[in-house]
Write a structure and sequence with these properties.
4 helices; about 120 residues
């Protein structure tokens, strides 16, 4: 075999290995992407399970703290879903909780504005 033929043989072998490694890398990248998606889904399911567990625990109590209702609302729960979990509550109860939260947020904002004006 001439040196030129040997070089071409080695180049062909290197190209095959490179192609094989690229294929392996692609497969690994796809596996990592799928694993990341699975982890995200598992975390989402875990958060939902936690929220459900907390809702169930709170529903067994006689008093539902407004902050717990706010947390559920911020977690994306609809009023209907909250009322399904807290069967002793009514829409009027939730309306009172949401109004209380709005008043609290407005008071915090007023305090922030006042504090900023005092600093200036």
């Amino acid at each position: 075999m001439t040196p030129h033929e040997e070089a071409n043989r080695r180049l062909g072998e290197a190209n095959r290995k490179y192609t094989s490694l690229n294929d392996d890398l692609y497969i690994l990248q796809q596996m990592v992407r799928r694993m990341e998606e699975a982890v995200k889904q598992a975390m989402k399911e875990q958060q939902e399970a936690y929220a459900c567990r907390e809702a169930l625990k709170a529903s067994q109590q006689t008093h539902v703290p407004v902050h717990k209702l706010i947390e559920l609302k911020q977690a994306g729960w609809s009023d209907k879903k909250i009322l399904n979990w807290y069967t002793r509550l009514t829409q009027a109860d939730l309306d009172v909780a949401w109004a209380r939260e709005r008043r609290f947020a407005e008071a915090v904002e007023r305090m922030r504005v006042e504090a900023e004006s005092e600093i200036s």
